[in-house]
C-alpha cells in the first residue's frame, strides 16, 4: 500500500501539502477506507492521523467525520462534517449530519438541518439518503405519518433498482409496519430484497440485469439518472443556512503515525 490507491479527486486535494506529507496522508486515508467496514475503530485512528497532518484538507476532515459516526461519536462526526462542508462547499454529507443530530438526541434540529438545503442541489443518491434520515427523525418524534411522507419521493419506484433502492424500500416497509399496514410492509420488504438481488446480479455480471417484480420487470440502473416516479412528493425545501461555528481541530486519540 503506497497511497497511490487513493482516487484521483482526493489526490488532487493533497497537492496543497508537501510531497512527503501528502504521501503519508494518502496512506492513512487508503487504510481508513480499507478498514472501515471490518474494523471501524482502527479506521478511525487512521482518519485521525490523516486529519492531524492535513487539517484544512476537505477529504481528511470528511473521512474523520465518517469514521467518527461509525464509531458512535456523533458530536465529533457532526463537527468534522461541518468543517468538511465549510472547506469544500459540498452538502453531500448532509444525510450523515442529520443522522448525527438524531444520534445526539436532537430530532428537531435534525429536521431543521435537513430542510436548510435545497434538495434540488443534491445528487439523487444523497436526496434519497436525506429522505431516509428525515423519516427517522420523524419517527424519533412519534410522527409516523409524516415519516412515511418523507419517503414518498420519486425514487420510491418499485420498477427500477438503483443502488439506493433497497435501503429506501426497506425504510418504507419499516414505517408501514409502524402504522400497522402489515401487508403493504411485507410487500415493500419483498421489493427491497428483489432490488438487492437485481443489483447483486448486475454487479456480478449476470446474464440479465432484469428480474420480475410483480407484473413489472425491475431493471438495475447503474447511473444516478432520475427514476420514473411511482409516487409524487413535494421535494421543495426552505433555503437557509445553519450556523457552523468556528473551525475545529481533530480530536485527540491513540496515535497512528
List the helices and strands and how they pair.
Blueprint: H1 8-13, H2 19-35, H3 40-53, H4 58-70, H5 74-88, H6 94-103, H7 107-114, H8 124-140, H9 144-151, E1 160-161, H10 165-178, H11 182-203, E2 210-213, E3 216-220
Parallel strand pairs: 1-3
Antiparallel strand pairs: 2-3
Helix pairs in contact: 2-3, 3-4, 4-5, 5-6, 6-7, 6-8, 7-8, 8-9, 8-10, 9-10, 10-11
* Assembly classification: single chain
- The tally of domains stands at 2
User: Which spans have pLDDT < 50 for at least 5 consecutive residues?
Assistant: 207-217, 223-255
- Note the run of SSEs as H and E: HHHHHHHHHEHHEE
Structural classification: mainly alpha
CATH class of the largest domain: Mainly Alpha
CATH topology of the largest domain: Serine Threonine Protein Phosphatase 5, Tetratricopeptide repeat
Strands ordered across the widest β-sheet: 1-3-2
Summarize the structure.
The chain is mostly helical and 257 residues long.
Descriptive account of the structure:
The chain is mainly alpha-helical and 257 residues long. It has 2 domains: 9-90, Alpha Horseshoe (Serine Threonine Protein Phosphatase 5, Tetratricopeptide repeat), CATH 1.25.40.10; 92-237, Alpha Horseshoe (Serine Threonine Protein Phosphatase 5, Tetratricopeptide repeat), CATH 1.25.40. It contains 11 helices and 3 strands. Helix 8 (124-140) packs parallel to helix 10 and helix 9 (144-151) packs antiparallel against helix 10 (165-178). The longest helix has 22 residues, at 182-203. The model is unreliable at 207-217 and 223-255 (pLDDT under 50).
Amino acid at each position: 500500500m503506497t497511497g497511490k490507491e487513493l482516487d484521483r479527486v482526493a489526490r488532487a486535494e493533497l497537492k496543497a501539502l508537501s510531497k512527503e506529507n501528502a504521501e503519508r496522508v494518502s496512506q492513512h486515508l487508503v487504510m481508513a477506507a480499507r478498514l472501515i467496514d471490518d474494523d471501524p475503530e482502527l479506521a478511525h485512528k487512521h482518519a485521525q492521523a490523516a486529519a492531524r497532518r492535513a487539517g484544512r484538507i476537505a477529504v481528511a476532515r470528511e473521512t474523520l467525520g465518517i469514521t467518527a459516526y461509525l464509531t458512535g461519536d456523533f458530536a465529533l462526526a457532526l463537527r468534522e462534517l461541518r468543517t468538511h462542508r465549510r472547506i469544500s462547499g459540498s452538502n453531500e454529507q448532509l444525510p450523515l449530519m442529520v443522522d448525527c443530530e438524531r444520534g445526539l438526541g436532537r430530532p428537531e434540529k435534525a429536521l431543521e438541518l435537513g430542510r436548510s438545503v435545497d434538495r434540488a442541489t443534491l445528487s439523487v443518491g444523497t436526496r434519497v439518503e436525506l429522505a431516509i434520515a428525515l423519516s427517522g427523525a420523524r419517527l424519533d418524534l412519534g410522527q409516523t405519518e409524516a415519516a412515511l411522507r418523507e419517503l414518498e419521493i420519486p425514487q420510491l419506484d418499485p420498477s427500477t433498482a438503483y443502488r439506493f433502492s433497497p435501503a429506501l424500500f426497506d425504510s418504507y416497509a419499516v414505517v408501514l409496519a409502524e402504522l400497522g399496514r402489515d401487508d403493504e410492509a411485507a410487500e415493500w420488504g419483498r421489493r427491497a430484497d428483489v432490488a438487492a438481488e437485481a443489483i447483486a446480479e448486475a454487479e456480478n455480471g449476470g446474464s440479465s440485469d432484469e428480474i420480475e417484480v410483480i407484473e413489472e420487470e425491475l431493471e438495475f440502473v447503474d447511473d444516478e439518472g432520475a427514476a420514473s416516479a411511482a409516487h409524487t412528493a413535494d421535494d421543495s425545501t426552505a433555503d437557509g443556512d445553519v450556523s457552523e461555528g468556528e473551525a475545529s481541530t481533530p480530536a485527540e486519540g491513540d496515535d497512528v503515525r
